[in-house]
Structures are given as structure tokens and as C-alpha cells.
Design a protein that fits this description.
Helices cover 47% and strands 0% of the residues. By secondary structure, the protein is mainly alpha-helical. Bound molecules: zinc ion (ZN).
Amino acid sequence: MVTLLSYSLGLVQKGLTTLEEVERVTFTDTGLEAELKAKRKSSLTCRCCQAELQPEWMDCPYCMTPRFAD
Ligand SMILES: [Zn+2]
């Protein structure tokens, strides 16, 4: 998976954008916050049954799938 940051740095290398621009979009609420929010959301959903999970639950109580296993 390509993160927003590495994608943006690729654009800098190609001369399509500037480092300043990357910093602006990556380290402000629009970029990084959205990425973190998406990650947080996915980690709180069971990979197996898609049930909503509480942050303190290590396993899904519905299908017993561990949250952090591969
Ligand atoms: Zn589940």
C-alpha cells in the first residue's frame, strides 16, 4: 500500500510538486488526519465479520477473530 507521504515524495522526485507542497498537504489536517482516521476506522472493524469493535477489545466477540493477527 502506498501512503500519502511516499506517494507525495514520488511526485517531488518527478518534479511534479514541491517539498513545501507535500509538507502542507501531508502534515495538516487534510492529509495526515484523514489517513490516520481511515487507519483507525479500519482497525476498529472486524476483518472477518465487519462488526464494529471497541478499541480495548483484542478479539472480535462475535466471531473470535483476533484484531491484530495477520
Ligand atoms: Zn468478527
